[in-house]
């Protein structure tokens, strides 16, 4: 019986030491300057806002207003990317929920400030698009793709 207790205690101790050692294993690829540049936490993550764009209530058939609104929408996306606030933007395929696209924003302190930014979008302002906002926790490296993405398109949207 004493041998069994000793064995159980030894196994428990070894598992505990292994768990403690696992916590202290550092990433051999860790780059502190990149982590700081992208404002990563200890897990390489950070907080963003995910915006799901939906079909708005404006059903106007005014093609000139619609075209002007969509051009303003695309120009606003470009401006927000250049300002470092928008890191992902793109349309969604046809779906039953009338979701039209997504935005992922970084460096926006509150949902109120995000809504003020969204109000600068002509398609939202003219109610062709509506939105839902969600806090999102994702890889801090997400913005790293932006410099490459600007080098692979052939036709300007």
Automatic annotation (TrEMBL):
Residues 1-21 form the signal peptide. InterPro entries: Dimeric_a/b-barrel. Keywords: Signal. This is YciI family protein. It comes from Mesonia sediminis.
